[in-house]
């Protein structure tokens, strides 16, 4: 499976936006959040944990974590959410 850093970098290039943060730190953060979410998968509060994890990553790379923002931010938030949900469910 691809890592979160690679997926977001590819999406950022396609959307022509700059992301902040260190790629290696983002890989580690994605792995840690995925592991945490895998433990919570199917439990009460999982959806809230997934949204919070998405927002942590969004803030780490410097995109708007709130539901407001431009279309690129919204698409990147969706990519983060989808990656974390799929990775946690597969773990």
Q: What percent of residues are in strands?
A: under 5%
Low-confidence stretches: none
Shape: globular
Largest sheet: none
Estimated structural class: mainly alpha
- The mean pLDDT is 90
* DSSP strand tally: 0
N to C succession of SSEs: HHHH
Rg computed from alpha carbons, rounded to a whole number of angstroms: 12 Å
Which range best describes the helical content: under 10%, 10-25%, 25-40%, 40-55%, 55-70% or over 70%? over 70%
Q: What distance lies between the first and last C-alpha atoms, to the nearest angstrom?
A: 11 Å
Number of separate helices: 4
Question: How do you describe this structure in short?
Answer:
The chain has 91 residues and is an all-alpha fold.
Description:
- The protein has 91 residues and is an all-alpha fold.
- 73% of the residues lie in helices and 0% in strands.
- It has helices at 4-15, 23-40, 46-61, 71-90.
- The longest helix has 20 residues, at 71-90.
- The relative contact order is 0.21.
- The model has no long low-confidence stretch (mean pLDDT 90).
């Amino acid at each position: 499976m691809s890592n979160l850093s690679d997926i977001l970098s590819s999406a950022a290039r396609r959307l022509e936006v700059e992301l902040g943060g260190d790629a290696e730190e983002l890989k580690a953060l994605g792995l840690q959040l995925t592991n945490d979410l895998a433990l919570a998968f199917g439990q009460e509060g999982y959806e809230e944990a997934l949204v919070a994890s998405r927002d942590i990553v969004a803030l780490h790379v410097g995109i708007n974590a709130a539901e407001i923002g431009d279309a690129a931010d919204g698409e990147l938030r969706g990519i983060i959410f989808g990656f974390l949900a799929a990775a946690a469910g597969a773990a």
